[in-house]
Specification:
Distance between the termini: 20 Å
Largest sheet: 7 strands, antiparallel
Helix content: 25-40%
Radius of gyration: 22 Å
Shape: elongated
Order of helices and strands: HHHEEEHEEEEHEEHEEE
Strand content: 15-25%
Number of helices: 6
């Protein structure tokens, strides 16, 4: 591994847990989090004298600010999606469904749940939304703007099922991206338990197309001299502002390696990159050189994603 200059640290805002649960005030209007802080280079002594000549220090601070803006944007999307799901889960239709054992009454309440899901899909551009019982059977499912009637009975195998039921009341599990068998594209899932008389009687789950997150970051990068990446914890590059990465299903391909390249930054994998410039486990900033690469880079960790801002020197 090559030698790297010391990290130039920014003045950071108070830490925010972007992936925290909703808490006890999940109902009501969604609010965007104001989590961005004003960043400035602290001017620490460098391990290599004269490396950052001219405007390079300003470039380092700008790249760090870009990574912070990207993390804030993704954090707001997650927060809004989490709050919306928790709010919907408090609708009386869910409790009414589980309180009755009369078949005709349950059918009526199930129709109301379908209506709630359709309204949610329309308002928040949800790809798929479903209500699933503890055995893994779907009670209701919406795909696009249609009510599904071929309800699945094997959702217990879904990657979000166990973490969703493990979440506390009014808390939301946010999944890594996965290829949705219903939407036929790579999505992010949000899941919250539905409590009735204190018992977890089901989970409410919806999926957002991953393109929604990429579109936000693409606009950020278009207005900046730097570039942005998202790297999943698996080490796959799932967004790169320099190129389009298709997220629609291709034939029968299902493996991540069929859709996403592995991360390689001047010969460093994700763990090596974060170690090279990391201030701590969640953020870092510094200069990366090696394999004909000379770049200022910064990162922020948001849940299962590492958001990277960088600029060639």
């Amino acid at each position: 591994m090559p030698d790297f200059p010391s990290t130039c640290y920014g003045i950071q805002p108070e830490p925010s847990d972007l992936m925290a649960g909703i808490g006890q005030d999940g109902e009501g209007t969604m609010q965007n989090w104001a989590i961005m802080g004003k960043l400035a280079c602290a001017g620490l002594a460098l391990a290599m004298s004269g490396v950052f000549a001219g405007g390079a220090k300003a470039d380092a601070a700008a790249v760090d600010a870009l990574a912070e803006r990207a993390a804030a944007a993704i954090g707001r999307l997650h927060s809004n999606a989490q709050r919306a799901l928790v709010t919907v889960a408090q609708d009386e239709a869910f409790a009414d469904y589980f309180h009755t054992h009369n078949a005709s009454e349950r059918h009526r309440h199930k129709s109301r749940i379908d209506e709630v899901s359709l309204a949610t899909q329309d308002k928040f551009h949800v790809e798929e939304m479903c209500l699933i019982d503890p055995q893994g059977a779907e009670i209701s499912r919406i795909v696009g703007d249609e009510i599904a009637h071929d309800l699945a009975t094997d959702e217990a195998d879904a990657p979000f099922f166990a973490p969703g039921f493990a979440a506390d009341h009014r808390q939301v599990y946010t999944s890594p991206i996965y290829l949705s068998p219903d939407a036929d594209k790579w999505v992010v899932a949000y899941v919250t338990p539905v409590l009735v008389d204190g018992d977890k009687r089901s989970i409410l789950h919806y999926e957002h197309a991953f393109t929604a997150y990429g579109d936000i970051l693409q606009r950020l990068a278009a207005n900046d001299e730097g570039e942005i990446m998202i790297v999943a914890d698996t080490g796959h590059v799932i967004f790169d502002s320099r190129r389009e990465i298709p997220t629609e299903r291709v034939g029968e391909l299902e493996d991540r390696d069929d859709y996403f390249d592995g991360f390689d930054f001047a010969g460093l994998d994700l763990a090596g990159f974060r170690q090279a410039i990391g201030q701590d486990a969640t953020r870092g900033q510094g200069r990366i050189t090696g394999q004909d690469v000379d770049r200022n880079a910064a990162f922020r960790v948001v849940g299962p994603w590492t958001l990277i801002g960088w600029q060639d020197l």
